[in-house]
Amino acid sequence: MDEQYKMTANAQETPVIEPGYTFGTVTEKISAIVLTRPASNGWFVGFGIAFLMTMMMLYAIGYLFLKGVGIWGVTIPIGWGFAIINFVWWIGIGHAGTLISAILLLLRQSWRNSINRFAEAMTLFAVACAGIFPGIHVGRPWLAYWLFPYPSTMGVWPQFRSPLMWDVFAVSTYATISALFWFIGLVPDMATLRDRATHPAARIIYGMLSLGWRGSARHWHRYETAYLLLAGLATPLVLSVHTVVSFDFAVGIVPGWHTTIFPPYFVAGAIYSGFAMVLMLAIPIRKIYNLEDFITELHLQNAAKVMLATGLIVAYGYGIEAFMGWYSGDRYDAFTLWNRLHGPYAIPYWSLLVCNIFIPQVLWVRKLRSNPVALFFVSLVILVGMWLERFIIVVVSLSRDFLTSSWGMYYPTRWDWMTYVGTIGMFLAAIFLFVRLLPMISIFEMRTLLPEAEVKE
Amino acid sequence: MYGIMAEFDSAQALIDAAKRTHEAGYNKIDAYSPFPIEGLAEEIGFHRDEVPLVVLIGGIVGGLTGYLMQYWMSAVDYPLNIGGKPPHSWPAFIVITFEMTILFAGISAVFGMLALNGLPMPYHPVFNVPRFSSASKDRFFLIVFSSDPKYDAAGTRSFLQGLEPRSISEVPS
After folding, report:
1. B145: three-class secondary structure by DSSP
2. A208-212, A448-452, B143-147: which range is least confident on average?
3. What's the confidence (pLDDT) of residue A110?
4. Picking from A65-79, A218-232, A311-325, B147-161, which range would have the lowest pLDDT averaged per residue?
5. For residues B141 and B131, what is the distance between their CA atoms, to the nearest angstrom?
6. Which of A190, A193, A257, A446 would bridge A249 by S-S if both were Cys, CB 3.0 to 4.6 A apart?
């Protein structure tokens, strides 16, 4: 009994930071990545590839502006296609950043301090990628600003009873609050970089970004209050964003969309894919920049556990969808279920079940949860699976609805693929720049985790 | 002269020094640290944090703006029959009201905090002390401002000396 207790106690003591660090060494180690470490050849190659992919996206979008959405595979009955699939996929990925920075802060999970900064950066870049798609999907993208209520000479206003309008407000609020939360978290670290930088231009740029932060006790007090309140505001916000995204579907009457399980199951799926992306970024970054002491096995374990839990919620969502397809007695719902399992899109549907439900169950094994290579590939599988999930939701329901005469098939074109792959490039290019220009781990929050930060009154 | 500044090695030393300085009757003092230290602001006599009030007001204004905007646009200025719903269909307005509440409250939290802190302020006299660059790394500073009624250059200096700091600097204004 005693022995067993000791073993569990030891297991829980996997440290958030490896021992032996001081305020000085933590500061130097993180700021040196930005200030003194030269950019490696690997960085240039990686950034170059990501940059070329971004250019491909701009080319595809440029051609779209020239020709119109006819170059895409979207057609009636499937008018949504890749644009909406990718929008939902990207915005979902962003959710993990807010979960880590806000919800885990409220829950006093100190392990978040090493990963919140780049998870928030990931959120911002993912939301930027997501934002492209509805903008270019509207058909006349130069008029996309019509979505916002502004006093126009036409004398008309947006239609606020539509979930698509709710989405405009939810996503733009989410982007704004995420950017503010991220920036405000960076301010004290900008002061650190300002004081460490030797190049005059770097001193001026970081100095301006630090807003003249000097670490006054009064400032810290208001800062922490504001930060905590922002976390409290961002928590319901992030839950509302994917809820509203799911309303885009659930408020419609199309079979397979019109269900009340959608909001919780979308939110869980968002966090599921977001943590997968966090791991796919964290695992190579901690290796390349020797940050294993700060992003320890504990972080990988915890992220894997969150994926396991949210993955099971997603599996429950699939189960309820299937059950309701049968139990509702609605022949169209029942047909949607049959069509997913046996219809023309059966292969993506079965792949989705394999990727999202079956393969991630290996995370029950402790050994695999602490194996970075295994985690990296499980995360990749989950990201593919979550993309397939949105494909199934958007395409299968639209392709075969109530009237047999209006059935159709959806085939993405190369322009669809170029735009989608291009946004991945844009996301990666932004991450590459971020790790070189800004401290990817919050330095001041790492200092608070050190034993020497403890005070008694 | 802007004030006299003492440098300490640890968070504990700073919090003890701040407590003794405040107890000695100095009111216009400030403490600087590379990370937030719980209880430090109270030790230097800071008790009124208005940030929550600013956020509350921002949230209320945002919620009212969101709802009234939708009400006025959909029911007054441009009533449109959508699926037979009444022009003032309040359940449909809840989502945007909520989002606007969060948006305004969040913006108030950030800009309210910065305004109350007097930031951005790229220049400040404390930056003239060369050692102060460590305040963003691993050193802790306490300053007594020359505007303090109890301040006198020699007396304050010897008082701070008694707190066993690592160094003492004069901050030119």
Report:
1. strand
2. A448-452
3. 82
4. B147-161
5. 10
6. A257
Instruction: Say which residues have a Cβ less than 8 Å from residue A286's Cβ, sequence separation at least 6.
Output: A292, A294, A295
Q: How many helices (H) and strands (E) does chain B have?
A: 5, 4
Rounded Cα distance, A213 and A223, in Å = 11
Domain boundaries, chain A: 74-93+105-149+244-442
User: What CA–CA distance (Å, rounded) separates A125 from A120?
Assistant: 9
**Rounded Cα–Cα distance for residues A179 and A121 (Å):** 9
Which amino acid, residue A226? A
pLDDT tens digits, one per residue of A366-401: 888 889 999 999 999 999 999 999 999 999 999 998
Q: Which of B113, B132, B133, B166 to mutate to test the interface with A (most CBs of A within 10 A)?
A: B113
Q: What is the pLDDT of residues A210-224, one digit of tens each?
A: 999 998 999 999 999
For residue A360, give both structure tokens. Answer: 């991630």
Cβ(A167)–Cβ(A138) below 8 Å: no
- Judge whether residue B107 has pLDDT over 50: yes
Contact between residue B21 and residue B132 where contact means Cβ atoms under 8 Å apart: no
Residues 165 to 224 of A: which have CB under 8 A from any B CB?
165-166, 169-170, 173, 176-177, 180-181, 183-184, 188, 191-192, 194-196, 207-208, 211-224
